[in-house]
Design brief:
three-stranded antiparallel β-sheet
């Protein structure tokens, strides 16, 4: 058995991660309570349509461990061996892998996860029409690395009328180490 570089995510109350950062706290903005959905049922779809986002638990523990293994495999791919795209950021100790894109054509397990089955079915249910994978990427968040400023993905896709951004976290994420925040 190969040891994983990632640990199985520790479940943290999503409400804690989806609270507003202090710089956005204003008296007229409220923090939305959240209970993750287990499937894209009618309640989850209604929540998504009203709020523009939803947290839906798609993978069980075994599937998450398999996904961690697959991400480790992609992380170890050499740049010169294929057409995937590894991106690096400069750190004090030199270049460090921060993102990989265009890996689906080269990894059977990740291709299956992202182009058929529960992930695609969930995106289709939320969109109300058949979904297709438009772009995929793995963000590697190393300890001590920089985060991202608040942003929306929609402006990046000017010629796409509807899209869904799907994040599948495979590592612990909480308010202390930089979880996703919905503002």
């Amino acid at each position: 058995m190969v040891a994983s570089r990632f640990r199985l995510p520790k479940l943290t109350p999503v409400r804690q991660c989806l609270s507003r950062p202090s710089y956005l706290k204003r008296p007229n903005i409220r923090t939305m309570p959240l209970t993750p959905f287990d499937t894209a049922d009618a309640e989850a779809i209604e929540f998504f349509r009203e709020n523009g986002w939803a947290v839906i638990n798609l993978l069980d523990e075994e599937q998450t461990l398999e996904l961690q293994r697959w991400v480790n495999e992609v992380m170890d791919w050499r740049d010169e061996d294929g057409n995937w795209l590894h991106y690096r950021e400069m750190t004090d100790s030199g270049p460090r892998l921060c993102r990989t894109e265009n890996f689906v054509p080269y990894h059977e397990g990740l291709r299956g996860l992202l182009t058929k089955g529960r992930v695609l079915d969930t995106a289709s249910a939320l969109l109300g029409e058949p979904a297709v994978l438009y772009k995929e990427k793995i963000n590697y968040k190393a300890a001590g690395g920089a985060g991202f400023a608040p942003h929306q993905d929609a402006p990046a896709y000017r010629f796409v009328q509807q899209h869904i951004s799907c994040m599948i976290a495979i590592d612990d994420a909480d308010a202390e180490n930089g979880c996703l925040e919905a503002v």
